[in-house]
Write a structure and sequence with these properties.
The chain has 37 helices and 22 strands. The longest helix is centred in the first third of the chain and has 20 residues, at 240-259.
Length: 980
């Protein structure tokens, strides 16, 4: 008899999860109810699954609200009715139109209006009346509406505690303190499941209302198929047989391209995969992915196919990936097998500025009614909840800050206000907070997608489903991950710049050639990888040097052992040690040697964990795959993961494995519960790394310009400019006659772009170079002002950054001129003058800018000095006792060094104490690294960018030297002279 039930998906309104709702209904003997979350159908499919399991009849619906006010409630009679409701809401969401006062005519859905509704009712429309409104019926002639009245008992909260939680949620949603919330902004305290028999008692004088309600619900049957079914687009060509034939044809053609005409091993593998793909009905999935690649390639877009899909030789032959699964002995069953508990997916990366066009192609190619982006659900988390609760309680910011300060945890536990916040925190933690958009998941469906969800229109501007990847999987959808990353942008632009600047064409996809290039591998081994995809961070460069990594296969392993799973287990050090001395490997157990000989007995990849669970612990493939999902962080809860701990030990014991060995193997397995890569994923990353490495090795200037123009990577802009100079480029400040909006290169001359100038408006960033290309070089400051209409403030920025130095005048002279010129209110004109009139000249005293003044202008407007070195800005001439290249010769010694800050990484020890890892440049521009243990961090903290005096002990690990810091202080720079 409950027509209006809300779950937590009524965001910042409902308080109960769907499992809780269903459990409570079962406990009260409720046999059917309608889920009607506010302006969404996020939970309807989950609701049906839960109800089916517990023996309750589920009915789907939506409560429609506008400006927080209830308009009407839609209740689906069946699957078609759910589609009608979803499409109605989707239409208004996608067109950004407000919901109307009255609902349209639905053929398979009922509409319930609040009792205050006065317009005439259509055949499928009813009036909902609450028990506390029944007094309004007294003395009324009900003949006209007797058959239209139904009982409206909303369910929002479970009990009084739930009602208080509801009040906090409403306050957070409205951004108001609790005491300011009005009754109409929240539900009523009675909006909950009533005790058995109480509904009947409250409506006893109007039993016909309950009869109407019951009859309405009895007419509803949610005729959706039960369990997970294949809801993806079933075919690519229109028939399964044609799909199978086309996929085989494309695979065989690709087989010849990748392996030549007579590779029997590859042929056998392709045929095996094609059989599995067909049997599991994934031909269309492969063909649609191939179609995505075909389209993007026709547009000249670069892509990287990665993830478990790279385990497939068919994917390799279709050019979906560039990873050779035979060369790497990849495990196809990790990607696709009959026992998989989840659908496979391809991760396709594009440049950050090309991804949306590929997504747009999918919407046009496969129809907007059958295509949507995948959503996500953000939840209330950690300290953000404490802040939100504190705000609605009306607490001052300083008090809220103290409650979120980890250093005050002990004092907070005794604070009564904090205890109150903590109690609400426990109730609110992990509740859904906001719907958002998945990083790149696209769904392509056989049926209209609105059978299963309404659609939102996030800022991205493409229809988006109202649930996440976990729900998509449970319902029966496979996603296509169309992702973006800046590394591909670096590569794409670098290739273009090389062609323009050096008139050389590069086939960047000849990765196997790059992998055999001695010069490229020497570059890799040196750790000189700044700007290169995935291998430029300090930790990765250190690992490369410790491994003496000079080949693709070692880089594949390095790409995975850098991940927290291997690192946190302590096995990274073991791997490095055994890599240098493979004959000294001590395997925990013969099974470890049998399965993990390639990685010296160390579990490096997700597949390794699966192998060990199957072969060491005797688990079946399904449980091993669940474990794999748990370790990759892609399981919604840790329940299944935790269940396997007991299973692992039980099965291993049955096989007679020694207890101490089992415990250690499990310790290593469980360390993967955070993050790890599949081998194919690591291999895909390594392919892209080699493309970057090739460009950095042979075309370092163009490569670094591309990195800058694609907004860098791990480091600051100034470090990439440092790398540019190391590569022999002459880097110039922005110039109105030479610079473009982005960085440009001509030979060895590189001009910084206007994009990097702080405070310069977008209009002038683009207009200045466009006007110059159209009408020629600027002749003077006056000419620039006339042709662009630039104002005083923006002109001053250009002068101070040095962009008008072509005039031959000092900045101070130009500043004098610009005030005179713009004081005369010149009008802009981009018409070419027939006769150039010379500007009047004035006699001024000699006004000269010092190098130090210029450096401070650059610090302010670019974020770094270009005219002076950071070291030359120091008040002291001291540069330390040794340089970075000499560290290895002073092992165990205490040394003093001066270093320019590059970056830092904060980590916590096992005891929760803070420590840091730092990276610096010496005066020669060479890197060195520091370690800051907890005993020094409080006394000698980092103080941001600048140069530091570092005193510490030189230590070494696997040939890589660094400094364990004892004392540490930031050095003072020369005072900023007053020039304005």
């Amino acid at each position: 008899m409950y027509l209006n039930v809300h779950s937590q998906y009524s965001l910042r309104f409902g308080t109960m999860s769907i499992p809780t709702l269903v459990e409570e209904a079962v406990a009260r003997g409720i046999t059917q109810m309608v889920l009607t979350d506010i302006n969404n159908s996020t939970g309807v499919m989950e609701f049906m699954r839960e109800c089916d399991q517990k023996g309750i009849k589920p009915i789907g619906g939506i409560e429609f609200r506008r400006d927080k006010q209830l308009l009407y409630i839609g209740i689906a009679q069946n699957k078609e009715g759910m589609r009608e409701l979803n499409e109605f809401l989707s239409e208004h969401n996608l067109e950004k139109r407000p919901l109307p006062d009255s609902a349209p005519i639905f053929h398979n859905a009922f509409i319930i209006y609040p009792y205050s509704y006065t317009a005439a009712l259509k055949g499928n429309e009813y009036l909902g009346i609450r028990f506390d409104e029944l007094n309004k019926l007294y003395g009324c002639d009900l003949a006209a509406i007797k058959d239209k009245l139904v009982a409206l008992q909303p369910v929002v909260v479970l009990d009084k505690v739930g009602y208080r939680l509801h009040e906090y949620l409403r306050s957070i949603d409205l951004n108001m303190v609790l005491t300011m919330i009005k009754p109409e902004d929240k539900c009523k305290p009675t909006d909950m499941f009533l005790p058995p028999g109480q509904m009947e008692a409250k409506f006893s004088r109007y039993a016909f209302i309950l009869d109407n309600t019951r009859n309405l619900m009895n007419r509803c049957v949610m005729d959706f198929p039960k369990g997970r079914i294949n809801l993806n687009r079933r075919t690519f060509t229109g028939s399964r047989e044609n799909d199978r034939e086309l996929l085989e044809k494309l695979a065989m053609k690709g087989l010849e391209y990748r392996y030549g005409k007579s590779n029997k091993v590859a042929l056998k593998k392709v045929k095996h995969e094609l059989k599995v793909i067909d049997e599991l009905d994934f031909c269309a999935y492969f063909l649609i992915t191939w179609d995505i690649i075909r389209y993007s390639s026709s547009q000249g877009y670069y892509h990287v196919g990665r993830g478990s899909g790279a385990n497939s030789i068919v994917a390799y032959c279709l050019k979906i990936t560039d990873v050779d699964p035979i060369e790497l002995n990849l495990y196809f069953e990790r990607f696709l097998n009959a026992q998989r508990t989840s659908p496979p997916d391809f991760d396709i990366d594009y440049s950050w500025d090309e991804r949306e066009d590929v997504q747009d192609y999918l919407f046009k190619r496969y129809d907007k009614h059958h295509t949507a982006l995948l959503g996500t659900m953000s939840t209330f988390k950690d300290r953000s909840i404490i802040r939100e609760i504190g705000k609605v309680m009306g607490l001052p910011k300083t008090e809220i800050d103290s409650f979120t300060d980890p250093r005050q945890e002990e004092a907070n536990r005794k604070n009564p206000t904090f205890k109150k916040i903590a109690a609400i925190y426990e109730l609110m933690a992990d509740m859904p907070n906001q719907r958002s958009i998945h990083a790149g998941g696209v769904l392509i469906t056989e049926e209209p997608i609105t059978y299963y969800t309404a659609l939102d229109l996030p800022p991205k501007g493409m229809p988006t489903v109202q649930w996440d990847m976990y729900e998509a999987e449970k319902i029966g959808f496979d996603k296509y991950d169309i992702l973006s990353q800046r590394g591909i942008g670096h590569i794409k632009m670098a290739v273009k710049l090389v062609e323009e600047n050096q008139q050389r064409k590069i086939d960047i996809h000849q990765v196997k050639v790059f992998m055999k290039d001695a010069k490229v591998n020497a570059q890799l081994k040196s750790g000189n990888t700044i700007g290169c995809f995935y291998i430029e961070s300090p930790a990765m460069r250190q690992l490369i040097r410790k491994l003496n990594c000079d080949n693709y296969l070692t880089l594949v392993a390095a790409s995975s052992i850098i991940r927290p799973g291997v690192a946190s287990s302590g096995m990274m050090g073991e791997y490095i040690k055994y890599h240098h001395a493979p004959d000294s490997v001590k395997y925990l157990h013969p099974v470890m040697e049998e399965q993990l000989r390639e990685t010296y007995g160390v579990m490096v990849y997700q597949e390794d964990v699966i192998k060990i669970c199957i072969h060491f612990a005797g688990m079946d493939g399904t449980d091993a795959d669940i474990l794999r999902r748990g370790m990759s962080g892609k399981y919604r809860s840790k329940k299944e993961f935790d269940r396997l701990v007991e299973r692992f030990f039980e099965e291993a014991k049955k096989l007679g494995r020694p207890d101490d060995i089992v415990a250690e193997v499990w310790r290593q397995v469980s360390s993967f519960a955070g993050y790890s890569f599949s081998k194919a994923h690591s291999a895909s990353f390594a392919v892209e790394s080699y493309q970057s490495l090739f460009l950095k090795t042979y075309y370092p200037r163009e490569f670094m310009v591309a990195v800058l123009n694609n907004y860098g990577g791990f480091y600051t802009r100034s470090l990439y400019i440092h790398e540019l100079r190391k590569a022999g480029a002459i880097v110039h400040l922005p110039c109105v006659n030479n610079s473009d909006s982005i960085v440009n290169i001509n030979g060895v001359d590189v001009y910084l772009g206007f994009v990097g100038v702080h405070g310069l408006n977008d209009i002038f960033i683009n207009l200045i170079p466009e006007e110059r290309r159209e009408n020629g070089l600027y002749r003077s400051l006056e000419d620039l002002i006339k042709r662009t209409g630039i104002g005083l403030e923006q002109a001053i920025i250009l002068i101070r950054v040095g962009a008008l130095r072509f005039t031959g005048k000092s900045k101070k002279e130009l500043l004098w001129d610009v005030h005179l010129l713009l004081g005369a209110k010149m009008k802009a004109s981009n018409e070419v003058e027939l006769f150039a009139v010379e500007a009047k000249s004035y006699s001024l005293p000699v006004l000269v800018n010092t190098q130090l003044e210029n450096a401070y202008h650059e610090l302010e407007l670019l974020g770094f000095p270009l005219s002076m070195s950071n070291f030359d800005l120091l008040q002291t001439d001291y540069r330390g006792e040794i340089g970075a290249d000499d560290l290895i010769n002073h092992l165990g010694q205490l040394v003093k060094m001066v270093g320019l800050y590059v970056c830092e990484k904060t980590v916590r020890t096992k005891t929760g104490k803070l420590m840091w890892f730092g990276s610096f440049l010496d005066e020669e521009g060479n890197f060195f690294d520091t370690v800051h243990f907890p005993n020094t961090t409080k006394t000698y903290p980092f103080h941001g960018a600048g140069c530091y005096l570092i005193y510490g002990k030189v230590v070494e690990e696997f040939g890589f030297a660094s400094i364990e810091v004892i004392k540490f202080a930031k050095l003072q720079i020369l005072t900023n002279p007053v020039i304005d």
